[in-house]
Amino acid sequence: SAGLDDRKFAAAAAAATRVEVDASASSEPREAARPQFRRLPQIQFIAALGDPAASSGTGADAWGLWTDDPGPRGVRLWQFEDKIENARDGRAPAGWRFDARDWWLEEHGLVMPAPGALPAKRFVDGAVVPRRRYVVTGDREVTTVLTVHGDGRWELDKGTLYDVTHLPCRSARYTEPPTGTSLCTPKAADQKLFPVKPGASMPAVPGCAKQDYAVLFVVGVEA
Questions:
Q1: pTM tops 0.85
Q2: Of 152, 115, 114, which Cα lies nearest the Cα of 132?
Q3: In a designed cystine with 202, which of 57, 95, 126, 172 is the match (CB 3.0 to 4.6 A)?
Q4: Cα separation of 18 and 5, whole Å?
């Protein structure tokens, strides 16, 4: 697949945008003219928000990262009550804790763990560089470098957010609405609406506010 293609990974890393750092005008440490990347032993997953047609934007500080595939650790909707709600400590069998006010669902109808924060900085010679680069792909045509900054800015070296979105992976975050007058629970989801077609929006769940996220495959990170 494109996400595991060594040639695409090497080409994306070689084409990474050169970043010039003027040590006299910046407190940041000087970086190498061309960044180096290491291949990840297993794919990671970014949950991204933004205009699908954009190649850059803001708001990456609200993106998330799954370092492990969240699907196999998820719980099917029809098992939610037995395996999570009735669990003594509210934990799924895989060990993650369910948050009744803020939970995630994927395209097969699996309630899954929330992603962690997407790291947007790295350390060079003991100093903090407020940006981090990832090699990302949608497992289609485009494999490229995504740069995220500590202030939430992001940019792709090539293509658009849509180009690096893995369309079969659908994910959404469900939260209590601002009014807080209704109960937002996976038990209210219509199981007949799953699985979700590639590229389609995730189903609404009665009583919940919903936010769809694009899913990007991460195949490498800046060394």
A1: yes
A2: 152
A3: 172
A4: 23
